[in-house]
Amino acid sequence: MMGMTNHQGRSRRLYPSRIIRAARPRPLRYAHVIGWGMEVPSEVLSNFDLEAIVDTNDEWIVTRTGVKERRIAEQRETTTSLATRAAQKALDIADVLPSEIDLIIVATATPEHIFPSTASMVQDFLGASNAGACDLSAACTGFIYALDMAANKIRTGDINNAIVIGAETLSRVMNWSDRGTCILFGDGAGAVVLQGSDVPGGILNSVLRSDGSGWDLLTLPTVGSRDTYLEDGSHEMHRIYMDGKGVYRFATRVIGDSLRQALDQIDLTPDQLNLVIPHQANQRIINYAAKSLKIPEEKVYSNVARFGNTSAASIAIALAEAADSERIKPGDLLGLVGFGGGLTWGAMVLEWSALPSTRPTYSLTWGRRQGQYAMAGLRRPVVRWWRRLMLLSPTTWVAALMRRLSRRHRNPSTYPSDGEHD
Ligand code: UT7
What we know:
There is one protein chain. By secondary structure, the protein is an alpha+beta fold. The protein folds into 2 domains: 30-351, 3-Layer(aba) Sandwich (Peroxisomal Thiolase, Chain A, domain 1); 364-410, no CATH class. It has helices spanning 47-51, 58-65, 79-94, 118-126, 142-155, 244-264, 283-293, 304-307, 314-324, 364-391, 394-410; strands at residues 2-5, 11-14, 30-39, 44-46, 69-71, 103-107, 132-136, 161-169, 187-197, 202-210, 218-219, 241-242, 275-278, 333-340, 344-351. The strands form 5 sheets. Strands 3-9-8-6-7 form a 5-stranded mixed beta sheet, with helices on both faces. A 4-stranded mixed beta sheet has the order 10-15-14-13. Strand 1 and strand 2 form a beta hairpin. 44% of the residues are buried. The structure holds oxa(dethia)-CoA (UT7). Residues 56, 60-61, 64-65, 140, 179-180, 183-184, 218, 244-245, 247-248, 251, 281-282, 285, 309, 311, 340 line the site of oxa(dethia)-CoA.
């Protein structure tokens, strides 16, 4: 037995491994963003369009939130399809093959299912045959949580490549008669490819926090939630409920403090940041971030006017947009900061190391990527049928085939087919 000390300095007694006899220290790794991409639906819903849906007006929305328009997913667009497209764009910039990816995390509050995870579906559509996949639920802070988890797996040397995605189809869970929420939110996805390297830089530090006592300020009730039993009927299953003022107060309290804390832990100060990318919740909150960090407003990225609040996708979309427009240069110090349901909040400091990159060049790797996407599309039906074949006797197999064909014939378009996710 051996005395050990945990990080708080309290002593603990642990039984040492009989398997690991000589500790082989792994070399220190750094997690760098080497690819980025975003995907938003093409359908635009402007404030003027909203005037026809709820009792609101463009002037109120712009003054109180800064939002002018938002994107709304069409029937065939899903959280998975937006996430997959954003990931493919990020893979193009990174010039990495899906088969080289070790981990996929999708931060989302609007998964297609409680299970399977959206990440597993993305993994299948990409043909990322060597990747683990899971969703992460931390509402609008989800992307920062997911980046932190993936970066730490890379830093420890467990994995080398990860895709981290923030993706939402919030329009599907909106209460379109609640003018306090439906004017705010939009749909979209953003993704980054993280890669391990010995070159110092990349994700430097993060602070993740939660205060569950505020869970009722922002909720999206699902199976068996106590909210849906409220007698006043104010909360419906699969509809967003928000106490706007409560969330606003919380957001302005944590936005500057958390980023300052993340900087402070690595001996940096806000004035050293080249760009802050906050969760795109409301222009007034974004401006407040600049004020509380005592930095000029131009150093705080905003696209809330064009996309509204896309929850877990918002920081990922803003990051991809800033990188695409070369608003971020190699060597820049970035501060990411998010807050939302949970309550959760988090901040991350990252040193940008990716050199400017052009959109897909039709290289050999580009061709191999397209090949892996195509193979994934072919593999899916084959593997599914093979699984069924293994389970059924020949007579029941033929009966199942007949049933399936007749169902398709009767009801051809109840759900987008697999190919339409591509
Ligand atoms: O990503 C998750 C994080 N979420 C957030 O960060 C949201 C944070 N909260 C906010 O952004 C703001 O609280 C809102 C934009 C949601 C609301 O702005 P507000 O300045 O807090 O407005 P309010 O709710 O206090 O409403 C002020 C007035 C009310 O009328 P009275 O009672 O003063 O007569 C509302 O009924 O504005 C009215 N109002 C509207 N009027 C026109 C509320 N919504 C609307 C609307 N159009 N859409």
